[in-house]
Write a structure and sequence with these properties.
heterodimer, A: mainly alpha, two-stranded antiparallel sheet, about 75% helix, globular, B: alpha/beta, four-stranded antiparallel sheet, 23 helices, about 10% strand
């Protein structure tokens, strides 16, 4: 029972980490980045390369964030900026970008499954329950990312500008906020978070050119259910993540893989605006 | 242009031209499909059969996405449903002509049922377009997982192979696949070129406005989804029967997105573009994926991004323009041959006991903010009732609450004696409400004639496979068209109209729905003095001679004074005062409100 509860909490934490980058971009830019899955994959390969180079696995997420941020800035300039007023087309264009990234990775690394070293192994003893130390560490990471994003939005000049753009972009531009710069940095941040998340989850899984796809779909559903708000993303991750673990445990792992998608579609039918409103 | 009485009924010139094009296209395609197998090697035939089935599927994606604006990721699921119906019945139950036909029927019925469920989920009134995409994205994922969960019955991840089927020659299958593609494409072409096709485009461009013209948007989308699902399942069935192999990927999310790529590259909203695009890309892919497997997918990805960003209309239309330049030939504009007829409107029951519009305790609040607080008003037939009040008084909210049952927080609204309940705008329109909007949000690419046809949908219907050659409108609507010169501009796309003409068309469209209660939100905003006077005269005629009950929101108090019978003053969501023009003009209370003083509403 305790194990199940820990599975639920850590799974939710992982979902939160993976979805945060998508949410930041949706919140500020009002567009859905379908290259999110590909950025996760890039993060996974960053972890793999770190392992191959013999560096400490702890460096992998940092390198991934840096690579993702840089790539995000470039992508925003070339592909996303012309599509601000065509949000459904932006979904398609970023999906196409995902294909490009996936094929470049395939050309570079082949299609086979690779592995990256885990920064920590073994279990922690939580009052009699042995549990994966790395999954518990990821939960701490999730809390740290949530806190850092909140601090970024509420305690910094960039956050103030970003919130202004979220609430009323026209007005924000009117009072002299460079909304193009806010968008560009946001996309970089979102892509960086996605790559970082990819590097963080890789030790639990394996690396292959399509590893990001299932995560993309789940993050997409989570973000729409939660709406743009960090606490409600945490709540949505907990609800849907726990449901997924419960269904996988008690019904079947295959149906468990469907839980988030189906539950999200039903929740959105009942609460079309998502669980949270505004940031 | 306009004349009284109805003209001869027959096929319109546009319909004739569309049918001729379809016939010529189908004839050419049939000749190509009939002779091609004798020129091609086995491999190419094999590849083309697959491409034909996929092209039929992509055609449905184009009708849904390109024409109607439903971005669907899930059309592949219907292909999968058709394929698995074929494979499962043949594997587990039996094979023979009856089993084969029966499993085809099962495929169609299953697809229609699933499409209905998806449509019911995704297309409720007020759903965002993104929600439909989410549901269609979930569909193939659910499909694949269910196949996985089916274990040995469905063959799980490895699929089912070598089930009994008809081992006809490649030529026969080539003709079946080609024939199916030609048939469904002709059907799709006739559909999108019909009156109904214009309704689909109108839904894409402005769904809300369609609902307020009485178009049952949700039902149209659901039916379209069901038809598209059935065509997709038919294609999947044929593909499975031909290859004798089914795998979960046939109904998967990746194929769903590939269909979008085919459609976008071929040219969305052109029908023939996605069909040719699918064939071209799928065949090229089959040849190149052997030698350059990853590079080919990379090239497709790059082409897709470039097309979405730079050439949203796709490649086939550009090719078409290039050909047009080499071989210049101009089509005569036929839309202008639509004839306008006018008829005398039935006078709305002036003596019926119930008021045309009555509200009781109407409230609308957003959280603790009360925008409307217990409004009780009653309009009468043959009366022009103006609603005035400073900005933020709740005037537009009032309009919204009486024309959409889902809007108000509490209270009752009666239209011609019937409570509107929680009805959608189109159900309220059916009770006799006609609403015009504050902004001139028309349908950009529709012509004036298309817009008028759309407004008549609720009464006259729209033909599925033909274009009408005449539109009959109630006389006041024709009057407005003539006054604004629109009767001479029936073939003009609405985005090219002047502001005054847009206002006129807006009003004519609302009148074309033959309402008994007319809700007008600032109909004269931005108009010249002459245009204002003309509209004022029309409104007076409508009320006096045709017995309409008109509710008018206006900021131009001189205009209000000139034409109103009665005035209602709203202030901060409450009814401040109600009276004749003179009473309201003379009221100190109203002057105080307009000069910005704080006043208590009358008890």
């Amino acid at each position: 029972m305790a194990n199940l509860a820990l599975d639920m909490i850590t799974t939710s934490a992982i979902l939160f980490i993976v979805a945060s980058g998508l949410m930041i971009i949706l919140g500020v830019m009002k567009l859905i980045n379908f290259a999110h899955g590909a950025f996760l994959t890039v993060g996974g390969y960053a972890a793999y390369l770190t392992t191959e180079a013999g560096l400490s696995p702890w460096l992998a997420p940092l390198l991934a964030v840096a690579a993702g941020f840089g790539a995000g800035i470039i992508v925003e300039r070339i592909i996303v900026r012309p599509l601000y007023h065509r949000p459904l087309d932006a979904i398609l264009a970023t999906w196409g970008l995902g294909i490009i990234i996936g094929q470049l990775i395939t050309l570079g690394f082949g299609r086979e499954v690779q592995f990256a070293a885990s920064p920590m192994t073994g279990t922690l003893d939580l009052g009699g329950v042995e549990y994966s130390a790395y999954r518990l560490t990821l939960t701490a990471f999730a809390i740290a990312i949530g806190a850092a994003l909140t601090a970024l939005l509420y305690l910094t000049r960039f956050g103030l500008n970003a919130r202004a753009v979220i609430m009323n972009e026209t007005l924000a531009r009117g009072v002299g906020i460079d909304s193009a710069r806010v968008r560009s940095l946001t996309f970089g941040l979102g892509a960086g978070l996605a790559c970082g998340a990819g590097a963080l989850i890789t030790p639990l899984l394996s690396v292959d050119p399509n590893m990001g796809l299932p995560w993309l779909v789940n993050s997409f559903m989570l973000v729409l259910v939660s709406g743009v708000s960090i606490p409600s993303l945490a709540v949505a991750s907990l609800i849907l993540g726990s449901a997924q673990v419960a269904v996988s445990t008690y019904v079947s792992p295959i149906i468990g893989g469907l839980t988030i998608v189906v539950l999200a579609a039903v929740l959105l039918r009942l609460y079309p605006k998502g669980l949270g409103r505004g940031m | 242009m306009a004349c009284d009485g109805s003209g001869p009924v027959g096929t319109s010139p546009i319909t004739r031209r569309v049918r001729r094009t379809a016939l010529i296209g189908a004839a050419v395609a049939t000749v190509v499909v009939a002779t091609a197998p004798f020129q091609l090697d086995i491999y190419t035939k094999n590849v083309l059969i697959r491409a034909f089935f996929l092209a039929a599927l992509a055609m449905t994606v184009d009708v849904l996405w390109g024409y109607t604006g439903i971005l669907t990721f899930g059309q592949s699921a219907f292909f999968g449903i058709g394929a698995y119906a074929c494979a499962l019945v043949a594997t587990h139950y039996g094979f023979g002509p009856f089993w084969f036909a029966g499993s085809f029927l099962i495929a169609l019925l299953a697809a229609v049922a699933v499409a209905w469920l998806i449509g019911w989920l995704a297309f409720y009134h007020g759903a965002s377009p993104l929600y439909a995409s989410i549901v269609t994205l979930a569909l193939p994922i659910v499909f694949v997982q269910l196949i996985f969960a089916g274990g040995r019955f469905t063959g799980s991840s490895s699929g089912i192979s070598s089930f009994p089927s008809y081992y006809w020659s490649f030529e026969t299958w080539f003709w079946i696949a080609g024939g199916y593609l030609i048939a469904v494409t002709v059907l799709g072409y006739l559909l999108v070129k019909s009156d109904f096709g214009r309704v689909l485009v109108a839904i894409r461009e402005n769904e809300e406005r369609c609902a307020y013209l009485g178009v049952p948007v949700s039902r149209v989308k659901i039916l379209l989804m069901m038809a598209a699902g059935a065509i997709g399942a038919g294609a999947g069935f044929g593909y499975a029967a031909f290859t004798n192999v089914v795998a979960p990927e046939l109904g998967g999310f990746l194929l769903g997105t590939e269909l979008l790529i085919f459609t976008a590259l071929g040219g969305r909203g052109t029908l023939i573009g996605p069909v040719l695009g699918t064939i071209g890309i799928d065949v090229t892919a089959s040849y190149l994926s052997g030698s350059l497997p990853f590079l080919w997918k990379l090239i497709t990805g790059v082409a897709f991004v470039v097309v979405i960003v730079l050439l949203p209309q796709g490649l086939i239309p550009i090719l078409g323009q290039g050909l047009r330049r080499l071989w210049p030939w101009r089509r005569p504009a036929l839309a202008s041959e639509v004839a306008l007829h006018s008829f005398a409107p039935t006078t709305p029951h002036g003596e019926t006991p119930s008021a045309p519009l009555r509200t009781e305790g109407l409230r609308r609040h957003y959280g603790s903010l009360k925008v409307l607080d217990g409004i009780a008003i009653e309009s009468r037939g043959s009366e022009l009732l103006s609603i005035v009040g400073p900005n933020g008084a709740g005037k537009t909210t009032l309009m919204r609450c009486v024309s959409d049952g889902g809007e108000r927080s509490s209270g009752q609204v009666f239209v011609n004696g019937t409570e509107i309940g929680r009805g959608t705008p189109q159900s309220v329109v059916a009770l006799g409400i006609g609403r015009s909007f504050q902004n001139t949000n028309l349908f950009e690419t529709l012509t004036v004639a298309d817009c008028l046809m759309l407004a008549r949908w609720r009464i006259d219907g729209a033909s599925l496979f033909a274009r009408r050659s005449e539109i009959a409108l109630p006389r006041p609507a024709v009057g407005i068209l003539e006054a604004t010169g629109l009767d001479q501009a029936l073939a003009t796309e609405t985005r090219n109209l002047s502001h005054g003409q847009k206002r006129g068309l807006e009003l004519a469209m609302v009148l074309a729905t033959e309402p008994s209660v007319l809700l007008l939100d600032e109909p004269t905003a931005g108009l010249t003095k002459a245009e204002r006077t003309a509209i004022g005269d029309v409104l007076i005629t409508l009320a006096r001679e045709h017995g309409l009950s008109i509710l008018l929101i206006e900021h131009d108090l001189d205009f209000v004074r000139d034409i109103s019978d009665r005035i209602v003053v709203l202030h901060q969501g409450a009814l401040l005062m109600e009276g004749t023009v003179d009473e309201v003009i003379a009221s100190e209370l109203v002057k105080a409100v307009y000069s910005g003083q704080t006043v208590e509403p009358a008890p």
